[in-house]
Amino acid sequence: MKRFATLLVTMALALGAASSVVAADDGKNRRVVIENLSTDAVNYLYASPVTSDDWEEDLLGDEVIASGASRGAVIDNGTNECNYDMKIVMSDGKEFIHRGVDVCSVSWWIIGEVGDTMH
Description:
With about 120 residues, the chain is mainly β. The chain contains one helix and seven strands; from the N terminus they run H-E-E-E-E-E-E-E.
């Protein structure tokens, strides 16, 4: 089931979908846009339910988010969960981690040269 949920998130990310492929039945929007304002590419994007002890598979797969680009990700494993741990790894190895992100209310993650912010 974990692998299937990861596949659904990855498919939605690749499609840039406004809603998830198989959405939770509560009608909440779990789409987060990652905007890369840094000079390095985002190489990896992870989103794991707070109930998981491990990072799920990389949601970007073979793709990256280039400097100046943005990409939407639907963080929805079909279980009505809203709270996820999220992690980005940049091409220079720098990591940005946020724990317990409410993806039902956060819709934007901006990565910059000196830090990051969520809205």
